[in-house]
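quick one, three chains, predict together pls
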Amino acid sequence: MKVLITDDDLTTRLTLGLYLKKWGYQVLEAASGPEAWECLNRPDAPSLAIVDWVMPGLSGPQLCRQIKASASVIKPYIILLTARGERRDIVQGLDSGADDFMTKPYHPDELRARVSVGARVIGLQGQLFDMNRQLEDRVRERTREVERLLRHKEELLQHLSHDLKTPLTPLVSLLPELLRQEADPDRRQMLELMLDGAHNIRSMITRVLELCQAGSAPLRLNPGGEDLRALANSALEAFRHAIPVGSRDLCNEVPAGLRVRADVASIRQALKHLFDNAVKFTPDRGRIVVRAETGPDAVTVAVQDDGLGLEPHELPLIFEPFHKVDPSRHHLGAPGLGLSIVKTIVEQHGGRAWATSPGLRCGAVFYFTLPSESS
Amino acid sequence: MKNVMVVDDDPGVLNTIDLVLRRHGYTVVKAPNGHLCLEHLRQGFRGVVLMDIMMPGLTGWETIREIIAANLLDNILVCMLTAKASPGTEGEGLEEFVFDYLPKPFDNVELMSMLDNAIECLEP
Amino acid sequence: MNPAPSTNGLAPANLVVIGASTGGTRVVTYLLDRLPPLRAAVVIVQHMPKFINLSFARTLARHARSEVRLVQDGDPLQDGAFYLAPSDIHCTVVANRRLRLSPGPDVNYVCPSIDVTMQSLQSPASGQRIIGILLTGMGRDGANGLAYIRKLGGVTIAQNEASCAVYGMPAEAVKLGCVDFELPPDAIVTMLAARLAR
C-alpha cells in the first residue's frame, strides 16, 4: 500500500519514511500542500496520506477540504499530524475532512497502529466499492435483459399481426364471391357474419400494428414548433371524410397562435383516434369539439363529446390496451386500442393523457398535453 | 386479353387470387416464387404481374431488380402486394418500375379496379 | 360567361400541377374521368415505365373531357388541356406559359421529378391561380415542390391517407406543414371544379 507523507520539514519526512518503510509501506513524499494535491490526483495515487498542519501554500486542513470537495469516487484516508494538540484543533482538523488526528511528538507504536487502522478502513472501502460496482453491473445486465424481452415482445406482436394478414386474404376475398352468388337468406346471413368477423380481425390487426409502431420512431420536430389550430384543422378535415356528411357536428375551437412542439404526423394520428372514439360514442347529430388552452409550460388539448360518457371508476382504465369500457358496448366493434395509441404518442412527446366525464350519458372530455413552443 | 401473373409464396393467397380472377374472366398464371416469375417472363408472358413483397429466396423487390437486369420489363406492368403497413425503404429507387400497390388483405373490387387500370394502360 | 380561348402567346389563366407515383395512374384516370373542362392548364407528372407513356396518355384521353397531350419540348400551355410528362426526362415550366423537356440526373431517385416541375413555376400573375396536387406514391418526391408552390402563394392539395395506395409522398408534404387540403379523389374533383370550371 502507498502512503504519502506531506510535510515541509525534511527531517520529519525522512523519519516518518523510515518507519513506514520498515512496516512494509511504499512511501511517497511531498514538501507542500499543492505538491501533495498534485500527487493525490494521479491515476495511481496513494490511498493514505499523513499531512502536516502548518505548511506554506496550502495548510493541512485546507488540503483536506480540497480533497473532500473533489469529484473523485475514492478519496484518500488522511491522518493530520501536528504539534497542535488542543481539543478545538482536533475538532477543527476532523471537521475539515481528516479521518484521524495525531499530535507531535508521536510515538512510533501509536503511529503504526493508526496507520494500520487506516489501511483496514481503506480495505473495507475497496470491498464496498467492488460490491457496489458488481450490483450496478447486475442491475444494468437485468435492465438490458428486460429491454431485450420488451423488444422481443413488440417484435413478436408485430410479426404475428403481420403474418395474420396473409391467411386472412382468402377469407376477405372469397367470402364476398360466395355472397355474390348466394340467394338463400339464411345462408347469406351466415356468410355475412363470417365476413364481418374477418373484417373485425383485420381492423384489430391494423390497430395492434399501429400501437406497436407508435412511439418507436423518433419524433420529427420542426424548429419553431407547429401551429396547433392548423394541426387540429387538418386532422379534422382528414377525419370529416370518414363519417357520413352531416351526421355529427365537428368543431375546431383551438385559438389561433398557439404553438406546440409536436411531430405533425403522430399528433394527427392521436387526434384521429380521439375523434374516432368520440364519434363511436356520440349519437347522430351529436357535437364534437376540439379546444386548447395554454398553461405555464404546456398546452392542454381537449376533445369533447356529448355522447355516452363514462363512470368515474372507468376513467383511469380506458387508456390501457384492450380495456373495454363495458361489455354491452362490444357491438361497437372497438378493439380498445385507439386510446392506448393516443397515450403512447402523447407520452413520447413528454405530455400526458387523461379523461373526465360527469357520468353516463353526460358526454366526456379527453385531454392531452403537449410542450408549448415559445418563439 | 386480361393476363395476370400472381407471384406469392403463400398457397392460400395464390389460389385465392387465382380463383377470384378466373371467375371474373381473367387469365391467371401462378408463380410461387420470384425465380418462376422470371421464368414465365422469359417465356414471353405479357400482362400484369401481381407481386408479393415478403417472399423467401428472392423478395419482391429483388425480383424486380432481376427483371430490370434481364431487360424483361417491356409488355408487363408490376403491381405490388404487401402485408406491411408502410412500404419501407427496400424499394427506394424502384418507384417508377412499380405501377401500383395494394395492401393485404384487399377487397376483390379494389384488386380488380387496380388490375383493370393497369391492363388498360398496357393496351397498345 | 364564356371567356375567349387563350392563344399560343398568352399565359394560361390558371395552372395546376399534379404529381403522382405508385398507385397514381388509377387516381389520375379517375380525376380526368370526372373533371369538367377547366379554365386552367393541367400538367401531370406521373412516375411510370417509359413504354406505357403512349398507352397511358391514350387511356387518359379516352376518359377526359378535354385534350390530353403527351408533352413535347416547347409545348405552349393552354387552358383546358392536360399535359402528361413523358418518362426519363425532366419537365419544367418556362415563364408559366411553356413546357420544356430537359434530360438530367435523377432527383429523389426519379426522372421526371415532381419537385423539378413544381419548382420551375414562377409567382402567379395577378388574378392567376396556381394549384399543386400531390397524389399517392412511395418516397418523398413532390413534397418540397408543394412547399414551394405554397410559398409562391398557390393552393396545395395532398391526397388523404385513407385513399392512398401508398401514403408516402403526401405524408412527407404534410410533415413539412405545406398542405392546405387533404382530400380523397372525389373531393379533389369537387374542389378543382368549384374553383376552375369554365
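The radius of gyration of chain A is 36 Å.
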